[in-house]
């Protein structure tokens, strides 16, 4: 006779009363959440924030359940999505029918065919933008990393994704406004249940940033509404759809999607490329191997897309960078129906927090998780891994639409810089740590001295 154990007994999640350590949480929220995730060791944790009790889900099987297998049950809605909804409205960064419509219209701009056809254009834009570093390099002046990476990324994205339709004066307003939004949103992001009537640090900067963003974006909508021109860029896709799809799509819809695409295509890439330099400075062996590969494949030529498939180590370095610093570090979901994750009942209406930052640092999933080691991404080792052990671009229906653009752009930029210069990092004020905002920016300005490569 066989005895079956019956359905698994439901378990309670481990509870972490964060309100009791509120000062520690406010001082260094990222470290506190990381501490909790490490203590839970891949099991489901529940944060007790007093007014809210979100689940933290980190195990790759559980992440897969939320993002992929039960994606229809776990949606981008609820309190934790509120700060982002106030920015992006009913755009591709929303949910339900509004998301589906925006996705259908923007997807063709990111198809493999379109991206391939734009790749030479992208490489030219990057080589031009990187060449502007020659002047500080020649003069022995150091550069500040984040603004310079931002300049290269903006020049590239405006030309390639926005069809060169944003004028310099407009970019000069959009860039600082976006920066204000990305940093000032931090408290609303962490404490989304605090009503708007209670002021939080960053609120005024956020409103000011949003106002500039709105003025500039509506000006752009005005200019291109009925005459978006031809091409495979974001303006053409959005404005043509507005003309052909009927009354559902108005100026606000175009504005929401322009803002969503501007934010996702610039802030993420700029911040990721900023993290590369402290990583390389701390790992001279990795830098030496990168340089040798780039020297052998690219030499003194301008980097071209055809070079990339012969630069496997450049790819590995970028992948490992996004393991330690997945700039889209947390994304919430709300359950529409009761379900069970890893034996823990999750009731309808509850929030589930998914964080590549936490999963990528789990000891049960990664050996020596805090060490920067691009060898983890040899094709064999990457293939052997759980699909959701590594997910800097999310997964399921909302998986990042720009991941191929990012990979190509980041690999081209890193290669272009290292083929021209030997960067030397200036001393920092204590350890460089990640600071929470819309993305994960470094906690201090970083400076590089660029020594021109002598051949
Ligand atoms: C370091 C670079 C990037 C990272 C780490 C990143 C990360 C992510 C993540 C985690 C998501 C999923 C969000 C969710 O499931 O709620 C996402 C979605 C998205 N990303 Fe990215 N992203 C990056 C670069 C880009 C770029 C360059 C673009 C555009 C050119 C872009 C456009 C988008 C869009 C439009 C979505 C929403 C897709 C949807 O919901 O259907 N991202 N990204």
UniProtKB/TrEMBL annotation:
<protein>
    <submittedName>
        <fullName>Cytochrome P450</fullName>
    </submittedName>
</protein>
<keyword id="KW-0349">Heme</keyword>
<dbReference type="GO" id="GO:0020037">
    <property type="term" value="F:heme binding"/>
</dbReference>
<dbReference type="InterPro" id="IPR017972">
    <property type="entry name" value="Cyt_P450_CS"/>
</dbReference>
<comment type="similarity">
    <text>Belongs to the cytochrome P450 family.</text>
</comment>
<dbReference type="InterPro" id="IPR002401">
    <property type="entry name" value="Cyt_P450_E_grp-I"/>
</dbReference>
<keyword id="KW-0479">Metal-binding</keyword>
<dbReference type="GO" id="GO:0005506">
    <property type="term" value="F:iron ion binding"/>
</dbReference>
<keyword id="KW-0503">Monooxygenase</keyword>
<feature type="binding site" description="axial binding residue">
    <location>
        <position position="400"/>
    </location>
    <ligand>
        <name>heme</name>
    </ligand>
</feature>
<dbReference type="GO" id="GO:0004497">
    <property type="term" value="F:monooxygenase activity"/>
</dbReference>
<keyword id="KW-0408">Iron</keyword>
<dbReference type="InterPro" id="IPR036396">
    <property type="entry name" value="Cyt_P450_sf"/>
</dbReference>
<keyword id="KW-0560">Oxidoreductase</keyword>
<dbReference type="InterPro" id="IPR001128">
    <property type="entry name" value="Cyt_P450"/>
</dbReference>
<dbReference type="GO" id="GO:0016705">
    <property type="term" value="F:oxidoreductase activity, acting on paired donors, with incorporation or reduction of molecular oxygen"/>
</dbReference>
<dbReference type="InterPro" id="IPR050196">
    <property type="entry name" value="Cytochrome_P450_Monoox"/>
</dbReference>
<dbReference type="Pfam" id="PF00067">
    <property type="entry name" value="p450"/>
</dbReference>
């Amino acid at each position: 006779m066989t005895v079956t154990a019956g359905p698994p007994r439901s378990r309670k999640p481990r509870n972490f009363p964060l309100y009791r350590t509120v000062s520690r949480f406010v001082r260094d929220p990222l470290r506190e959440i990381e501490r909790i995730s490490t203590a839970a060791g891949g099991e489901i944790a529940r944060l007790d924030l007093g007014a809210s009790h979100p689940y933290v889900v980190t195990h790759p099987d559980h992440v897969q359940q939320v993002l992929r297998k039960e994606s229809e049950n776990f949606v981008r809605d609820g309190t934790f999505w509120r700060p982002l909804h106030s920015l992006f409205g009913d755009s591709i960064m929303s949910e339900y029918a509004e998301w589906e419509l925006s996705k259908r219209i923007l997807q063709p701009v990111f198809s493999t065919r379109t991206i391939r056809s734009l790749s030479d254009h992208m490489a030219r834009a990057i080589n031009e933008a990187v060449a502007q570093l020659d002047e500080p390099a020649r003069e022995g002046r150091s550069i500040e990393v984040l603004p310079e990476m931002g300049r290269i990324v903006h020049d590239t994205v405006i030309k390639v994704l926005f069809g060169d339709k944003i004028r310099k004066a407009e970019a000069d307003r959009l860039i600082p406004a976006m920066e204000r939004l990305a940093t000032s949103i931090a408290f609303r992001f962490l404490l989304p249940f605090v009503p708007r009537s209670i002021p939080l640090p960053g609120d005024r900067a956020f409103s000011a940033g949003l106002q500039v963003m709105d003025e500039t974006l509506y000006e752009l909508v005005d200019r291109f509404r009925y005459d978006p021109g031809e091409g495979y860029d974001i303006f053409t896709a959005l404005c043509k759809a507005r003309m052909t799809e009927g009354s559902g799509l108005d100026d606000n819809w175009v504005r929401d999607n322009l803002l969503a695409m501007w934010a996702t295509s610039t802030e993420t890439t700029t911040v990721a490329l900023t993290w590369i330099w402290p990583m390389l400075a701390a790992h001279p062996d990795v830098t030496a191997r990168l340089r040798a590969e780039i020297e052998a494949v690219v030499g003194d030529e301008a980097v071209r897309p055809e070079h990339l498939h012969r630069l496997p180590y450049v790819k590995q370095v970028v992948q490992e960078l996004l393991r330690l610093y997945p700039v889209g570090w947390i994304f919430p979901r709300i359950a529409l129906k009761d379900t069970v994750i890893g034996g823990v009942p999750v009731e309808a209406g509850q929030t589930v927090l998914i964080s590549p930052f936490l999963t990528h640092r789990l000891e049960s999933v990664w050996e020596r998780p805090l060490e920067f080691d691009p060898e983890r991404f040899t094709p064999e080792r990457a293939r052997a891994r759980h699909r959701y052990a590594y997910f800097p671009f999310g997964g399921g229906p909302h998986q990042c639409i720009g991941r191929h653009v990012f990979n190509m752009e980041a690999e081209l930029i890193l290669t272009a810089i290292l083929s021209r210069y030997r960067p030397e990092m200036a001393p920092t004020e204590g350890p460089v740590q990640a600071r929470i905002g819309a993305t994960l920016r470094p906690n201090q300005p970083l400076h590089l001295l660029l020594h021109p490569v002598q051949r």
